[in-house]
Amino acid sequence: MPRCYIHGPMIETETVARSQNKAKSLEVGWTVALLAVLLLIACGETPNIRQEDPISSQSGASADGAVDSETTARFGAALERAAADPGARAGFYLHAGCRGGSEYRSVEIFESGVSIWGGELQFQLTESDIAGLLQELLAADYASLPDRYGGTPEPDRMQANSARSVVCSLSVTVAGAEKEVLQINRGEQSESFAQLVNGVLDSCEEQAATGIGAESLEEGLEKVASGELDPVTLGIHFQRMNDGAGGQAASELILDVEGVMASTRLRDSVDGYSDSIELELTGGEVAELAWKLAEYAPSRFAKNSWAPTYIDMTMRVLNQKTSLVARPYRGIDQETHGERQVDFDATVELLDALHERVLLEGEIPVPNP
């Protein structure tokens, strides 16, 4: 999945403003409610105050305190179909994570049953295992849970940053519908939601203990190539820009590979980045790509590799990763790093060729309705 990250101040300012408005609204609401209660008592009537389950009535559950009923119904229907029928699990993906003290546990589960524990170990769940997890979500009425628990309405920036620290999270995608629930530190916590997430993790932990890992990036690439590791464990990010320090690049672009899905975007100085174009590769094509990359031994590339213009490259298999920025460094040329530079240049050519193929054969994805 290609991801776009928006950094600090913009988000903090918006979050703080929303929190201040919400705090004022709550203050007014409680004042009105108190007056109503006093009037009822004065008239000799006893007010009926209803106690609600905190997992379904948590204030601050989402940014605006409301749950979209239409979205909830759509996701709930998709979840029910997926639990009853394996054929209705198109695009199924689940990510669960929870922190307990200094320990953080997480798991990713894909439609095929291929799962990744803590980003480090691949293991396999059966169809029955996935069906059981879906039934647990239905039993907990996951579709109706608020988007967020915890946090604080206080406007102080330090507290706002702390409030966005995730303690537990659970996100599920199935049949084009998706839902994510977060529990943020500080504020009122939901024990029921934490139990749900930890239950998912507990059900996977024993199987994950015998999973497959990699001791190096090259070993990981070889295991992807041989089929021992699934393509979902592979990720590549390749960005090229003209930074004005060297010659003009053939094209400015961002290419991402996540498992079998390759996506690319072009950039020009006037319109910025184009829409993403995607191409689904076959398992054999991913294996061939992984073999070639393993031969070039990317973890050996110099961190200051030479390139005629700016190149940002990241490559990973499970938790084995390498990242570098190449450009026209002072005192470094195409001969400085010898064989490592040759392999780096060959890798750039390989990714350029993949980019061109995605442009030629890929399509702009159609968003879900």
How does this structure look, described?
The protein contains nine helices and 14 strands. It is α+β, with helices and mostly antiparallel strands and 369 residues long. Helix 3 runs antiparallel to helix 4 and helix 8 packs antiparallel against helix 9. It is globular. The N terminus is likely disordered.
Please state the overall shape, judged from the principal axes of the Cα atoms: globular
Number of domains: 2
The main pleated sheet reads as: 7 strands, mixed
Specify the CATH architecture of the largest domain. Answer: 2-Layer Sandwich
CATH class of the largest domain: Alpha Beta
Portion of residues within helices: 25-40%
Q: Give the N-terminus to C-terminus distance in angstroms.
A: 18 Å
- The residue-averaged pLDDT reads 82
Radius of gyration: 25 Å
Residue ranges: pLDDT <50 for 5 or more in a row? Answer: 1-65
Strand order of the largest sheet: 4-3-2-1-6-7-5
How many DSSP H or I helices?
9
Q: What is the CATH topology of the largest domain?
A: Mago nashi protein
Task: Kindly name the structural category.
Answer: alpha+beta
The percent range for strand residues is: 15-25%
- How would you spell out the order of helices and strands? HHHEEEEHEHEEHHEEEEEHEEH
Query: How many β-strands, per DSSP?
Result: 14
